[in-house]
Automatic annotation (TrEMBL):
InterPro entries on file: MFS_dom (IPR020846), MFS_sugar_transport-like (IPR005828), MFS_trans_sf (IPR036259), MFS_Trehalose_Transporter (IPR050549), Sugar/inositol_transpt (IPR003663), Sugar_transporter_CS (IPR005829)
Domain annotation Major facilitator superfamily (MFS) profile: ranges: 1-284
The protein, known as: Major facilitator superfamily (MFS) profile domain-containing protein
GO cellular component: membrane
GO terms of molecular function: transmembrane transporter activity
Classification via PANTHER family: OS03G0363500 PROTEIN, PTHR48021
Principal location: membrane
Positions of transmembrane segments: 20-37, 49-69, 81-99, 105-122, 183-201, 221-241, 248-270
Database matches in Pfam families: Sugar_tr
Keywords for this protein: Membrane, Sugar transport, Transmembrane, Transmembrane helix, Transport
Keyword Transcription included in the entry's annotation: no
Species of provenance: Sorghum bicolor (Sorghum)
Record flagged with keyword Aminoacyl-tRNA synthetase: no
Length: 284
């Protein structure tokens, strides 16, 4: 949460690339701290660093993607961010079932290192450069993203006009979120994120192996199956994003989430009831 809160200011002051570099370095230190951990304190410290890295990247990466993407494919590229997040989680499930946790930590180092090195080969966000008044760098960055033979004059004018229109608006304040005209949108947006977390996705993810083992299945096979299933489903959702609309997908996925959580809770309830019955018969 702290990473997500501070990333906005960092991205505006340091730039999108430098903020991602900073997050990648923090992530590398976090993974190394976990790898060399000798006690719980070092594990907690590494987890804090990794949490901060994730929080920063969760803001700045979608912003960077939206700022460099052409208008026609902006939605698809923005969706690809979530697709690769789910793919990474699925890959961790699959690899984690095959190697030790310390070896899995070394695997986690790879994306951070690739990000850190890859950022040296791409330009800064043209919109950020235009916003801070670096005209020459702005045109060079936009030209590199669109190709040497592309005419960027129209898009460059559009970007500068948009930035000027934003500057003419009154400065936004936090309390503006609670104005009556904004409350509906804020309630929907924040409510979706709250219920996403209250759905227990993190608990189910962290205890996937335990849940399958409790049900009498192999924990390793169960987590591997989750990873294998999650990738194509996420890809399918990304393809339907612009065709079916956000609301339809939310309704379908929410219904599926409710059913899954209900069945999982019901199974644990019956297991607890059975354990209680067996214990009571044993003590008689």
């Amino acid at each position: 949460m702290i990473g997500a809160v501070t990333s906005g200011r960092l991205a505006d002051i340091l730039g999108r690339k430098m903020t991602m570099r900073f997050a990648a370095v923090v992530g590398i230190f976090g993974w190394l701290t976990v790898y060399f951990a000798k006690d719980a304190i070092m594990l907690y410290a590494g987890r804090v660093l990794l949490g901060y890295c994730t929080g920063v990247l969760s803001y700045v990466v979608p912003v960077f993607i939206s700022e460099i993407a052409p208008k026609g494919i902006r939605g698809g590229l923005a969706t690809s961010n979530q697709l690769f997040i789910c793919s990474g989680c699925s890959a961790a499930y699959i690899i984690g079932a095959l190697v030790s946790w310390r070896s899995l930590v070394l695997v986690g180092l790879v994306p951070c290192a690739v990000l850190l090195l890859g950022l040296f080969f791409i330009p800064e966000s043209p919109r950020w450069l235009a916003n801070i008044g670096k005209e020459r760098e702005f045109h060079a960055s936009l030209q590199e993203f669109r190709g040497e033979d592309s005419d960027i004059s129209e898009e460059a004018t559009e970007i500068k006009d948009y930035i000027e229109s934003i500057r003419r608006l009154p400065k936004a304040r936090f309390q503006d979120l609670f104005q009556s005209k904004n409350m509906y949108a804020v309630t929907v947006g924040v409510g979706l994120m709250i219920f996403q977390q209250l759905g227990g996705i993190n608990a189910l993810g962290f205890y996937t192996s335990y849940i399958f083992s409790s049900a009498g299945f192999s924990g390793k096979i169960g987590t591997t199956l989750i990873g294998v299933i999650q990738i194509p489903i996420t890809f399918f959702g990304a393809l339907l994003m612009d065709r079916s609309g956000r609301r339809a997908l939310l309704l379908v996925s929410s219904s599926g989430t409710f059913l899954g959580c209900f069945l999982t809770g019901l199974s644990f309830y019956f297991k607890l009831s059975e354990s209680t019955r067996v214990c009571s018969q044993t003590t008689k």
